[in-house]
């Protein structure tokens, strides 16, 4: 085990500034109204920096700066933009450990995840879209011998992006990389729980970007998010969060007839067919890891496999092994490289999870392991820790229907294929799902029958840049990742050209 | 009330006329008085989904447009406030929550979303119990 020193201490790899203003037009700008708010680390509950409290005036400045930058940025060649994205990736790679520690300190997630997943994935995202934009082609259609339709991709202009707190740097990369590759300027609002790590990222890459191409306005939804989402000079709004705010953002966007992409979460089923237990081999071991993936990132993942559906013929034995795997999870200081589960991102998040454990019990769910706050003591005393929890119940319980966003899985049994699909689809959401079976045909049929945007098949929680991610049903609108994302940040320009010297003959 | 004219007919009246479904803790009532003084009449819409899903979102009345897909669960009377605070939820979510009684409480924290209390360093939170049958 090794432990990274806490940011700001003597041997730390990185330190945060004591204050962050808004990043507008390539420089730091103090908030017009002069307000700041404290940013605590979930690791100990103690504040470590303060952040500008943005308002409509600050948003206005940022949108103006983005508009000043957007025309020249939109005219750069794909090769130039790709080179900048690659340079950003390279800079991040050179500072991977610092970024990992920064994100762990701000979000509470274990550093082994930020080192192995969050930051490497964010780096790869910039590289992927650097490649994708260079390979993207418009099209031409020969309509008749003398008439041609050309289709060009053009940037939208200035886009707004509102980032969630569960992956502060990776979720920003998901949105920034395609938007920048496509030639847009961005005004971005980080989550109010996790604004600082993105500023640390910006401190590493600011010199690579022309001023005004990326602007960061901090603040609260009601004060900074609303003026951004309802701004008439913003061409598109991208948001990751929950359903009520998603609807509100759509309402704001509708006032200006602007498009939105929304990623609003889910209640993802993870289905274990009986043949998983046919052998005690590597695949069985992998399936048990797949069951335990509910605890990844403390369950604070939109696609958390928070409903485990286990076929009744192997239910008891598989669940027992799953509980044992869960109990082997190492929980502790997120800066220890051995820690698998760290702190929840905020106190209200902790309280919400505990309130769900309460109603789960009242509804008759059995607590097979966990079920309480984790009191880790010492310097972690004030942090927000929950023990990984396995609940057993039925799909009509609240703990099966709402995303708890904590390290909590709700388990139930199913009889056969049709029963599995019925339960899997009995939810308002459709973001992710998992299917585990040794039968390729069954895996295919299940994957196609589940109403969700991504069905991990014999794996879970992989997020490669070259695979589309997004929701069915109330989980949202649009996709992220994959080169198709470029078109979410582009206009289509059609030139309809006649090369015929003769008139049409109508007049 | 700003949300007037948006109430669906349907079974929503039956929801309001039935047993109590939503209550406030004293701390939540106090916060509603504070927020009303700053922002005027208020409303709740219960969220679902990830991140800050499951949290009741508090807005200026009418800021969030309810429609035929929503159910009005309660009009919460708060001492000292002239207007009740309506509590809304999407009908599809209510179908899965209707067996539980909700109490709006307040905890320390910093939720994201556009809810008005976030800048105060506190967060509305739902505590639930089973409805009596």
UniProtKB/TrEMBL annotation, chain A:
The UniProt GO MF terms for this protein read: oxidoreductase activity, acting on the aldehyde or oxo group of donors, NAD or NADP as acceptor
DNA-binding listed as a keyword: no
- To which protein family does this belong? Belongs to the aldehyde dehydrogenase family.
Q: What is this protein called?
A: Aldehyde dehydrogenase
| Every Aldehyde dehydrogenase domain range | 30-494
Instruction: Please provide the record's keywords in A-Z order.
Output: Oxidoreductase
Q: Which CDD domains match?
A: ALDH_ACDHII_AcoD-like
- Give the highest taxon in the source lineage: Bacteria
A Pfam family it matches: Aldedh
Coiled coil located at which positions?
Answer: none
From TrEMBL, chain B:
Q: Where is this region: Disordered?
A: 1-20
Please give the superkingdom of this protein's source.
Answer: Bacteria
Check the record and name the InterPro entries matching this protein. DUF779
Q: Where is the composition biased (Basic and acidic residues)?
A: 9-20
Pfam families (UniProt xref): DUF779
What is this protein's name?
Answer: DUF779 domain-containing protein
Upper lineage ranks?
Bacteria, Bacillati, Actinomycetota, Actinomycetes, Kitasatosporales
